[in-house]
Amino acid sequence: MSGKPKAQSRMKRDKKDEESSGNLYAHLDKTSVLQEARAFNETPINARKCSLILTKLLYIIQQGESIGRTEATEAFFAVTKLWQSKDANLRRLVYLVVKELSNISDDVIIVTSSLTKDMTGREDVYRPASIRALCRITDTGMLQTIERYMKQAIVDRNGSVSSAAIVSSTHLMKKSSEVVRRWANEVQEAVSSDNHMVQYHALGLLYHIRCNDRLAVNKLVQKFSKNSLRSPYAVCYLIRIAARCLVEDDQPDSSMFTFIESSLRHKSEMVVYEAASAIVSLPHTTSAELQPAIAVLQLFCSSPKAALRFAAVRTLNKVAMAHPTAVMSCNVDLEKLITDSNRSIATLAITTLLKTGAESSVERLMQQISGFVNEISDEFKIVVVDAIRSLCSRYPRKHAVMMPFLAKMLRNDGSFEYKKAIVETIIAIIEENPDAKTAGLAHLCEFIEDCEHDNLSTRVLHLLGREAPKTPNPSSYIRFIYNRVILESTKVRAAAVTALAKFGAQCVDLRKSIQVLLRRCLLDSDDEVRDRATFYLKMLTEAGESVIHNFILDGLQISPSGLERAVLDYLKSGNYSAPFDLRIVPVSTQALSQPEKLEPYAAQLAAIPEIAKLGPVFKSGTRIALTESIAEYTVHLIKHTFANAIVLQFECKNTMNDQLLLDVSVELEDPESEWQPSGSIEIPKLPYGEAQSAYTILEFPESGAISGSLGAILKFKVMDVDPTSGEPDSEDTYDQTYVLEEVEIAVSDSIQAVSKSSFASAWEALGEDSAREETFQLSTVDTIPEAVKKIAEILGLSPCERSDRVGEGKTQHTVLLSGIFRGGYDVLSKATVAIDPSDNSINMNIIIRSTEPLVSDLVISAVV
Amino acid sequence: MGIFSALSGIFGIGKKQVNIIVVGLDNSGKSTFLNHLRPVDQRSSQIVPTVGFSMSNFSTGNLTFNAFDMAGQGKYRSMWESYYGTSQALIFVVDSADRMRIPLARDEFWMIMDHKDIANRPIPIMVLANKMDETDAMSASEISVSLGLDVIRGRHWSIQATCATSGVGLDKALEWLSVEVQRFLDSRKT
Question: What is the DSSP letter of A607?
Answer without folding.
Answer: T
